[in-house]
């Protein structure tokens, strides 16, 4: 069951984030685009499972379509609607992994040697953890800090998407440090970023901007540490 769940959740993360381009997101109100996204989800599931369990694929693709349609047409684009959407997807995936526990073992990848299989599953853990940390984290942090950004205005000077890139880089470094068993290096990263940000905060003379920077920084590092720790635990399970 765990192998099936791992493949399904990694497929969901790949399809919902890296493979869901800005073009698709901008056209989510088009039913054809929603259907295309659901088909992409199904295709990735087939690739990662190495099998075509049609009942599972049909249920997953159809529920994914319905959940996304409800989010697009009935819910506002907020942090809580994002969490609700992902939680329902997770619940469906967990339910399918329970109903179809042996799907992965009957697929192509399970027929390879135990050593290759362990590497494959560890790779899925690493891919899923990276997406969860970088792309999912960027969305969560942006939505969580949006109300604070509205309070201080949108005229903060800086590179376009510069803050998002910085956040992804710092969470990637956090992931690397945790996975190589050097978590103490995270403290160095926080110190280094604080020093680099000090000039911006000092020159602005705005308490709101200072608090916004601090909140964003701790959210980013906190999310990065959480996901990196969970990824490390998952890797130890598949490659003890």
Summarize this structure briefly:
This protein is an all-alpha fold. It has helices spanning 2-16, 22-26, 31-49, 54-74, 79-99, 114-152, 162-179, 184-204, 207-238. It starts with a helix and ends with a helix.
How are the elements arranged and paired?
Elements: H1 2-16, H2 22-26, H3 31-49, H4 54-74, H5 79-99, H6 114-152, H7 162-179, H8 184-204, H9 207-238
Helix pairs in contact: 1-3, 1-5, 1-6, 3-4, 4-5, 6-7, 6-9, 7-8, 7-9, 8-9
Question: Could you please describe the fold and organization of this structure?
Answer:
With 240 residues, the chain is mostly helical. It has 2 domains: 2-111, no CATH class; 130-238, no CATH class. Helices cover 80% and strands 0% of the residues. It contains 9 helices and no strands. α4 (54-74) runs antiparallel to α5 (79-99). The chain is flat and about 60 Å long.
């Amino acid at each position: 069951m765990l192998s099936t769940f791992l493949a399904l959740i990694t497929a969901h993360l790949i399809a919902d984030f890296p493979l869901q381009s800005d073009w698709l997101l901008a056209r989510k109100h088009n039913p054809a685009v929603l259907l295309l996204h659901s088909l992409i989800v199904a295709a990735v599931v087939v690739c990662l499972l190495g099998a075509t369990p049609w009942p599972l694929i049909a249920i997953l693709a159809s529920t994914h379509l319905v959940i996304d349609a409800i989010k697009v047409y009935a819910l506002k684009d907020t942090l809580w609607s994002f969490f609700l959407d992902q939680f329902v997807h997770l619940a469906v995936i967990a339910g399918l992994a329970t109903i179809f526990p042996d799907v992965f073992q009957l697929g192509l990848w399970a027929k390879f040697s135990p050593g290759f299989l362990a590497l494959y599953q560890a790779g899925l853990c690493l891919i899923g953890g990276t997406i969860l940390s970088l792309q999912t984290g960027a969305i969560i942090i942006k939505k969580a800090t949006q109300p604070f950004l509205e309070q201080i205005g949108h005229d903060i000077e800086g590179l376009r998407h510069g803050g998002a890139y910085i956040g992804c880089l710092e969470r990637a470094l956090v992931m690397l440090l945790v996975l190589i068993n050097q978590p103490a290096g995270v403290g160095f990263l926080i110190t280094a970023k604080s020093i680099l940000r000090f000039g911006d905060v000092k020159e602005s003379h705005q308490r709101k901007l200072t608090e916004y920077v601090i909140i964003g920084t701790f959210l980013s590092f906190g999310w990065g540490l959480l996901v990196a720790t969970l990824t490390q635990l998952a890797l130890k399970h598949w490659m003890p």
